[in-house]
Design goal:
The complex is a heterodimer.
Chain A: H1 2-24, H2 28-48, H3 52-77, H4 89-112, H5 129-139, H6 141-165
Helix pairs in contact in A: 1-2, 2-3
Chain B: H1 5-25, H2 29-53, H3 60-90
Helix pairs in contact in B: 1-2, 2-3
Classes of the chains: A mainly alpha, B mainly alpha.
Chain lengths: 168, 103
């Protein structure tokens, strides 16, 4: 239990720092690197939540594929201009107010309903890939097929855009 | 000290707030797209945490999370292609300078 706690807090602190650095960094390439770190840490959190399949997908899709896409896009656009975050006081007040409101709602939920949800409900079996695949096959087959169709449409759309518009 | 669902919800809330702040404040469009991905990560943490702590037998949250990962990867790819075309036409990626749709 102590090891789980240490792993959670370490990952959470690193994740928050990486996300903050992503937003604060002036250079976009640095933002991509910090985002890569945050995506990989997020994948580790999924492993800690007994979801190894999703953790692997998170690391491979978000951590590797999307980061490569971002780097290629930055190189193609030659985006060297520094981006400075300027937060106006009114915007800062609104964002912090929303954040405080959400925290208050979460605290009230903890007081009332979430108390019985502790980690003893977690299954001891670590690998649930078979269970996830059966869930996809027997309960969400139509959604899965629609997702495949959506991906195919997006692929064709991107190809058409690049072929017909990119050549000009 | 035991890690409960509440810890994961607070973590997801903090990450969501950071991503939302970046999305609102970033002037570079690529950075805004990265912040959208951070928000998606926070949403995925929520889904998986609820599945792991509450409804483990059905894994519905994990299925939703899988769909979200796939769809957000696609929308990022399409967004980057559009950003490339915007840069080709305007030679800039600053959101303040792209104002064709401004009313």
């Amino acid at each position: 239990m102590l090891i789980q706690t240490i792993i959670f807090y370490t990952t959470a602190i690193l994740l928050i720092c990486a996300c903050l650095l992503t937003v604060i960094s002036k250079k976009v390439m640095h933002s991509v690197l910090y985002a890569l770190i945050s995506f990989i840490l997020c994948g580790f959190l999924f492993f800690a939540l007994n979801a190894p399949f999703l953790g692997a997908i998170q690391i491979s899709v978000y951590g590797i594929a999307l980061s490569i896409l971002f780097v290629i896009a930055i190189n193609l656009t030659n985006c060297t201009k520094e981006d400075e975050i300027k937060v106006s006081p009114r915007l800062f007040l609104v964002i912090s107010g929303v954040f405080m409101l959400c925290s208050a709602i979460l605290t009230m939920m903890k007081e009332s309903r979430l108390e019985y949800l502790h980690s003893s409900y977690l299954l001891t079996a670590f690998d649930n890939s078979k269970q996830l695949s059966s869930e996809l096959l027997f309960h969400n087959l139509v959604a899965f097929e629609l997702l495949g169709l959506y991906l195919l449409t997006a692929l064709i759309g991107i190809s058409v855009l690049l072929v017909f518009k990119g050549g000009r | 000290m035991e890690i409960t669902l509440f810890h994961y919800l607070v973590l997801a809330l903090i990450i969501f707030a950071i991503g939302f702040t970046g999305l609102v404040c970033a002037k570079n469009i690529i950075k805004a797209l990265i912040c959208i991905e951070i928000i998606m990560s926070a949403i995925n943490i929520n889904f998986i945490a609820f599945t792991a702590y509450k409804n483990y037998m059905f894994l519905t949250g994990m299925v939703f999370s899988l769909f979200i990962i796939a769809i957000s990867a696609v929308q990022t790819a399409i967004g980057l292609v559009l950003i490339y075309f915007i840069y080709k036409n305007k030679q800039t990626l600053t959101s303040d300078e792209i104002e064709e749709l401004k009313g």
